[in-house]
């Protein structure tokens, strides 16, 4: 009986591992470039020297956003809550960017611990991993949570 239970446990665990491996989310900056089309109606990606992605001006320029303090891009009129988040220490990394893209308002409410917090960005991008990876290619480094200042 013990051998049957051990065999069943091994088969269950190996099946779960195979399932997880076959369904792993592959983060792909190239795919993020295509997904960014949804963002460029409001956001551009422009360095000091070139327009990499010509986009709208409703949102801030996203060149160098990974590693940047939230709400700090010069000459952009941010909402009060994203500025408050930046003043409270929010620095964009790929992890928190994905969380923000999924639901900007809910992210700010949780980060600021304020149910009244709002975001000017109303668009939600459910699967933003690739977009965050794409944006990281235009930053000093591909920072993860906790890196940078």
Automatic annotation (TrEMBL):
<keyword id="KW-0732">Signal</keyword>
<feature type="signal peptide">
    <location>
        <begin position="1"/>
        <end position="20"/>
    </location>
</feature>
<keyword id="KW-0249">Electron transport</keyword>
<dbReference type="InterPro" id="IPR036909">
    <property type="entry name" value="Cyt_c-like_dom_sf"/>
</dbReference>
<protein>
    <submittedName>
        <fullName>Cytochrome c family protein</fullName>
    </submittedName>
</protein>
<dbReference type="GO" id="GO:0009055">
    <property type="term" value="F:electron transfer activity"/>
</dbReference>
<feature type="domain" description="Cytochrome c">
    <location>
        <begin position="27"/>
        <end position="139"/>
    </location>
</feature>
<dbReference type="GO" id="GO:0046872">
    <property type="term" value="F:metal ion binding"/>
</dbReference>
<keyword id="KW-0479">Metal-binding</keyword>
<dbReference type="InterPro" id="IPR009056">
    <property type="entry name" value="Cyt_c-like_dom"/>
</dbReference>
<keyword id="KW-0349">Heme</keyword>
<dbReference type="InterPro" id="IPR002327">
    <property type="entry name" value="Cyt_c_1A/1B"/>
</dbReference>
<keyword id="KW-0813">Transport</keyword>
<keyword id="KW-0408">Iron</keyword>
<dbReference type="GO" id="GO:0020037">
    <property type="term" value="F:heme binding"/>
</dbReference>
């Amino acid at each position: 009986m013990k051998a049957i239970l051990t065999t069943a446990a091994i088969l269950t665990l190996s099946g779960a591992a195979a399932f997880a491996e076959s369904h792993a989310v592959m983060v792909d900056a190239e795919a993020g470039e295509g997904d960014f089309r949804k963002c460029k109606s409001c956001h551009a990606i422009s360095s000091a020297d070139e327009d990499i992605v010509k986009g709208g001006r409703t949102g801030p320029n996203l060149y160098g956003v990974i590693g940047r303090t939230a709400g700090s891009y010069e000459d952009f009129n941010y909402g009060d809550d994203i500025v408050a988040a930046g003043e409270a220490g929010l620095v964009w990394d790929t992890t928190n960017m994905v969380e923000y893209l999924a639901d900007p308002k809910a992210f700010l409410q949780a980060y600021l611990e304020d149910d009244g917090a709002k975001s000017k960005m109303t668009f939600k991008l459910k699967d933003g991993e690739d977009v965050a990876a794409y944006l990281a290619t235009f930053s000093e480094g591909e920072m993860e949570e906790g890196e940078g200042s």
